[in-house]
Write a structure and sequence with these properties.
492 residues, mainly alpha, 2 domains, two-stranded antiparallel ribbon, 23 helices, 67% helix
């Protein structure tokens, strides 16, 4: 039988399929995904309430955490780009929580990354099953990055076995951070495919970075609730007085905090040159992040800021011309970050250097340099550079020199692999910076930020192993993934 339809109607089925609900009262039907998300949230609330009554709040929180991870996994399956968003947005807030404090054996950001990677891989597999094309190609960065990965993981373990030493669990755990960095590189490389997504990634880095800067400022101003929060979750072994001296923040390290803030500031400048961020956004975030640099109370961070600023002024003529207009921000940032700055300047020793640097040299000369014989320089000492302290007043000793740590972990092969990777990364970033198509693009901003940040890491690695600090390496390898990813391929 022929059915007569009113004018403007169509006999084709609705986009939602046969089961889609008709519009009621002129409103469009609720999307299937939104309905499932709503049902999932309601289910989590119901299950959490039942468990809180039946088994207590601790088990309820654990169960809700598992349900949240399941939801995160499902979201990454549905939209693999969500995995990149979720990791970047939460990175500076949870990366400083120690292994085993909330989750057995791993840090929360590591557990989240595993779940997100599993979801993104599952989503990519489902896309492939549907016949969608997934671009897989060998990039010029892949070979040096693969060599660096092997020199950081397999080679140190193999060299220990060749020297007749027994591997321990700490040796195996020490090679995992570089594996995590390469995983972040692959995740970003294969999920970020448009300028809009990349700008969203920038904001998910910068805005949480501003939150970290505010925490650093409040921490050095002895703001009680912030200090108590950090002591309860992020650095439970520290006392309140020590926490208020420097901005350790939720990254649990003033050096990592400083690196993260400087990378955020570099991104703001590189995006501002290309008009990717609003003016109020640049000014407000720049002021907060600039004060946060001072609030870290870390000399190496202040040196990093000077190096990054010099590189930006040298490389980008537009910044040199407009920098005087924003000079009024400098005294404001100095006033906000003054407590940590004054406290650190008062801590100089009679030799004219910070007291902590004298401690660094003492550790190097007494515990590390004597172990650098010919064979150890050639093959490395151990994947784990942390030593047990002989004194009672401290538990461990850290190797606070980045290039010496490369030699300690993997000897000459690892140092050479890092130099090769650095040359290729800087060359690739320079190519994208100078490309005419990228002068106003988000890809050009990412390449410019990578060029500046990799240079300051190369320089400051003399003092600290910046590449493997919490948050620093994550952001650097995220930027490397952008320069080698789907967005850069589309611009060829």
């Amino acid at each position: 039988m022929t059915q007569t339809l009113p004018p403007g109607s169509s006999s084709s089925p609705a986009p939602g399929g046969a089961g889609s609900a008709p519009a009621v009262g002129g409103y469009p039907p609720t999307p299937v995904v939104s309905r499932w998300l709503g049902l999932g949230a309601a289910g989590c609330a119901v299950v959490g309430g039942i468990l809180a009554v039946a088994a207590g709040p601790l088990i309820a929180l654990a169960a809700i955490g598992v349900l949240v991870l399941v939801g995160v996994f499902a979201a990454a399956v549905y939209r693999p780009i969500f995995a990149t968003y979720a990791y970047l947005g939460t990175l500076p807030l949870i990366a400083g929580i120690d292994r085993g404090h909330l989750i057995p054996l791993v840090r929360p950001n590591e557990a989240l990354l595993v779940v997100l990677l599993a979801g993104a891989l599952t989503g990519a597999y489902l896309q492939w099953c549907r016949g969608e094309r997934i671009p897989l190609h060998l990039h010029q960065l892949d070979i040096p990055l693969g060599i660096f990965l092997l020199a950081s993981t397999a080679w140190p373990l193999l060299s220990m076995l060749l020297r007749g030493q027994t591997l321990t669990s700490t040796d195996l755990a020490a090679v995992l951070p570089v594996c995590k960095l390469v995983a972040i590189y692959l995740l970003v490389r294969f999920t970020v495919s448009t300028d809009t997504q990349l700008v969203r990634c920038f904001r998910l880095i910068i805005w949480p970075g501003a939150v970290v800067a505010v925490i650093a400022i409040l921490q050095t101003l002895h703001f009680g609730p912030v200090v108590s929060m950090l002591q309860a979750v992020w650095v439970p072994d520290s006392n309140s007085a020590a926490l208020a001296e420097r901005g350790t923040t939720t990254l649990a390290s003033p050096i990592a905090t400083g690196d993260y803030i400087i990378i955020c500031l570099t991104l703001i400048v590189c995006c501002g040159i290309r008009g990717l961020l609003e003016r109020w956004e640049r000014l407000g975030l720049g002021l907060v992040l600039g004060a946060g640099v001072l609030a870290t109370g870390q000399f190496s961070t202040w040196i990093s800021a000077v190096v990054a600023a010099a590189l930006i002024l040298w490389r980008f003529s537009g910044v040199r011309h407009s920098s005087l207009r924003f000079a009024w921000l400098v005294p404001v940032a100095l006033a906000i970050g003054a407590p940590a700055l004054i406290g650190r300047l008062q801590g100089f020793s009679e030799f004219g250097v910070p007291r902590s640097w004298i401690g660094r040299w003492s550790n190097l000369s007494n515990f590390y340099l004597p172990r650098f014989g010919f064979i150890n320089v050639l093959m490395g000492v151990s994947p784990d550079s942390v030593l047990e302290a002989p004194e009672r007043w401290r538990d461990v000793i850290y190797l606070e020199s980045g290039y010496l740590e490369l030699l300690w972990v993997g000897g000459i092969p690892l140092l050479a692999a890092f130099v090769w990777l650095s040359v290729v990364v800087l060359r690739r970033a320079r190519e994208l910076m100078d490309a005419p198509d990228n002068q106003r693009s988000a890809l050009g901003a990412a390449a410019s930020a990578l060029w500046v940040c990799w240079w300051f890491v190369l320089i400051l690695t003399v003092l600290d192993p910046h590449l493997t600090l919490r948050g620093t390496g994550d952001l650097l390898f995220m930027l490397i993934g952008i320069t080698a990813g789907r967005l850069s391929v589309q611009r060829r």
